[in-house]
Specification:
Helix content of chain A: 40-55%
Shape of chain A: elongated
Oligomer: homodimer
Low-confidence stretches of chain A: 345-353
Largest interface: A-B, 39 and 39 residues
Largest sheet of chain A: 6 strands, parallel
DNA sequence: GTGAAAGCGCTAACAG
DNA sequence: CTGTTAGCGCTTTCAC
């Protein structure tokens, strides 16, 4: 491989001049510049990244720590990060922790040890790795550039940017969508409290905002499986005054409900509208395609990378907590209540399990 | 950050000695070694990767070029590569070409330009990027370490390892599974010729091997969508002598068929067994879980990485074409024909479209 | 068994 | 505007 010296010799200038041309630093005559550029082309010269890194203390590498790749959520994030990183001239080092705590901790050290310039970390879940959390805080305070994606840390002072999803907005959109389409009896198929609290809040809030009363008997608790959704779907059928729409805590539950209703001859969305959450790939496969609130996975990654790149390029300013809104994707499983469609007919059986 | 000099000073030895300890090269007294190790620990010293790379011409980085991340096939490969790479002390640089030809070509240059030590490349499809193919060949001949994953190159001499999937084996397994369970009337829902030729061969071969005659009217051509499978599923119902089993060219087609049959009251697998291909995530979600031939995605990545690491660690030997077999995963959608189950009753309508 | 010193390819004072 | 030179942190002769 040609080195900067070869280029200098070829162009009959000093290495400094070549370096100047390469980095657009210092002033160089147009004539000289041209000569150098020609030499670079002729020798197909590219600066050696290791030498550059050694000298300038910047590797042009960023690390992305995720628990696993084979998961649409994380791979979409990775895609977002990669796209931004590449455009900014950084390469992406992919670090799969596999949920292993010590590995995650190790990867963090890539930043202080000059393996990479900065790092984006997405934890498997909240509080999944206290040791890593504390080390992250430590490194952040030391000024190392990190961006945390979804790892909420209880700390007064922020020492890195923090990106997260706000599902409340999406929930509100979903509710507005349903309400505007005339639905007032909207069931909520919620998950265990912790996961779904924001969503339940959104559900309640949207109803109240319209002056509608929140009906306890339309709020169901469930786990997050297809089966659970299926069971609730069947349950709904026996309501004295059945809902015309369902808002589910996630797509699996929503799909379970759809399947149950369909098997009992209920047409979706003509008779019941269904909204899911997450936008898993399956959501756009099943018939009818599921209207759902999508996590902005790709944008989460994109934004995280943008913040990191900003820092790495010398950007300053306060660290922020940035919350991206989950947004509604309207597909086929929801429809206006107005129209010629027949809705579920009430029968006299009780609605509670 | 502490440098090797700091360690040397702390341990009261020369940097040479520290380097020897770090690399297990040259002889060092146990006493000295211990002293050095203690100093390393005390200073939390870690060698600077850039300096190392510059000096030794090895970055300990490998690149993985894939078309996209948000695709279970490629992310599983990436996971396999990453796992092996990490264990061998390499970091993984993730290169998303997004199918862009020039980008793919660029990424190739990371190897000769010392960005990475070696590279694994998975193309979007056969012949998708002739320019990259030719450059790859060129670089391979120059001795740069590459592994190609599924990019079949028509070239007499192999200049890198080539990993691919052999779907014939999987097809044979699927057929044996069906045959051993008593199925003899097995329909083949095949795709366009190019994709499915090996599979169709496997289908034919397995039947012939059992002395069964290949019945033309049981072989269907289709595109690779759910809808296509659905239509074929309906078609099957009208066969005069309907099949007791279906082998589909991929999971989507298989699932389409399952849905069609179920909607017409046919029970799977009691009345018809169905086998898919690929093992997409959906395959283990739908009821019944789909028996399918799985591409060894993860192992493909693992193997590619192993070959590359082997080369990078100085391993020599002929370049090889390694073919990994796709294997059958038996789930719920297939069942023995023997037993008390009632199979599809023939009616008199014609079977052809 | 240990150390001195050269130099990998590059950038950045500093001098002219 | 251009060149000389030191040195980033490390490995590796070569000498002792």
């Amino acid at each position: 491989m040609a080195s900067i010296r070869d280029v200098a010799r070829e162009a009959k200038v000093s290495v400094t001049t070549v370096s100047r041309v390469l980095n657009d630093s210092g002033a160089v005559t147009d004539v000289t510049r041209r000569r150098v550029e020609r030499a670079i082309r002729q020798l197909a010269y590219r600066p050696n990244p290791s030498a550059r890194a050694l000298r300038s203390n910047r590797t042009n590498l960023i690390a992305l720590i995720i628990p696993e790749m084979v998961n649409p959520y994380f791979s979409a994030i990775a895609q977002g990060v990669q796209d931004v990183a590449r455009r900014a001239g950084f390469h992406l080092i992919l670090c799969n922790s596999g949920g292993e705590q010590s590995l995650e901790l190790d990867y963090l050290e890539m930043v202080p040890h000059k393996h990479v310039d900065g790092c984006i970390i997405t934890p498997p879940g909240p509080n999944s790795n206290p040791a890593a959390d504390s080390r992250l805080l430590q490194l952040g305070r030391l000024g190392y550039p990190f961006v945390s994606l979804g790892r909420q840390l209880d700390t007064p002072e922020l020492c890195f940017d923090f990106i997260t999803t706000d599902t409340a907005v999406g929930t509100q959109e979903a509710m507005r969508h349903l309400l505007e389409n005339g639905h007032t009896r909207i069931a909520y198929f919620g998950g265990p409290e912790n996961v779904a609290s924001t969503r339940l809040q959104g559900y309640r809030g949207a109803l109240s905002a319209r002056g509608l009363v929140v009906q306890r008997e339309l709020i169901f608790s469930t786990d997050l499986t297809l089966e659970a959704g299926y069971r609730l779907g069947e349950l709904i059928l026996r309501c004295p005054d059945p809902p015309t729409a369902i808002l589910a805590v996630n797509d699996m539950v929503a799909i379970g409900a759809v399947l149950a209703l369909q098997e009992h001859g209920v047409r979706i969305p003509e008779q019941v509208s269904v909204v899911g959450f997450d936008d898993i790939p399956l959501a756009s496969i099943i018939r009818p395609n599921l209207t759902t609130v999508a996590q902005p996975k790709y944008d989460l990654g994109r934004l995280a990378a943008e913040r990191l790149v900003f820092r790495l390029q010398g950007g300053i300013g306060k660290f922020e907590t940035i919350s991206l809104s989950a947004h509604l994707i309207v597909r086929e499983s929801t429809r206006s209540i107005f129209g010629d469609s027949r809705h579920l007919v009430a029968d006299r059986r009780p609605c509670t399990p």
